[in-house]
Design a protein that fits this description.
By secondary structure, this protein is an alpha+beta fold. Helices cover 37% and strands 28% of the residues. Helix 2 (63-77) packs antiparallel against helix 3.
Length: 157
């Protein structure tokens, strides 16, 4: 049975790898969600006037805290018996939640960039977006400000 499992796993992995193909237009400079595709986007030409590095924190994700609390509660409940076990479970859940919260905070931030531009009509805009290591913005760069119908905006070169 194990002999059959390894080749089957390799075949599945190879099949999944074959499904992801490189973009024929080159390296992606921006990312969009499905709802932003196949619609007319507003394009405004602009010049970069300021660039600031920022950190983008995820909002309201309780996965780490919840998982840590559950694991800590289960681990704590195995200590002692009776009322001691219940107290250990509560303490384990609290400590596990705190550890899970810290772990999540370490992995739920992204590098971002705040790009301030002046449009060709004289309007000043500032957009915060995820940083892309392949694209560096500098003061004076000519860029395009792309705005979707829902107001979501990206700056691209």
């Amino acid at each position: 049975m194990r002999i059959l499992t390894a080749p089957l796993f390799a075949l599945i992995a190879l099949s999944l790898t074959a499904c992801s193909t490189p973009n024929p237009y080159g390296q992606a400079s921006a990312s969009y969600v499905d709802s932003e595709t196949n619609q007319a986007l507003k394009v405004t030409y602009a010049t970069v006037v300021d660039v600031q590095a920022v950190t983008i924190d995820s909002e309201g994700n309780l996965v780490g805290k919840t998982a840590g609390g559950l694991i800590g509660g289960i681990a704590g409940s195995s200590i002692g018996g009776g009322k001691g076990s219940a107290a250990a479970a509560v303490a384990g859940a609290v400590i596990g939640g705190m550890i899970g919260n810290k772990a999540e905070a370490m992995y739920s931030t992204d590098n971002g960039v705040q790009i301030t531009v002046q449009t060709s009509t004289g309007r000043t805009l500032s957009v915060i977006q995820e940083a892309n290591i392949n694209i560096m913005y500098s003061k004076g760069d000519s860029v395009k400000v792309i705005t979707a119908t829902d107001g979501k905006t990206h700056i691209i070169q």
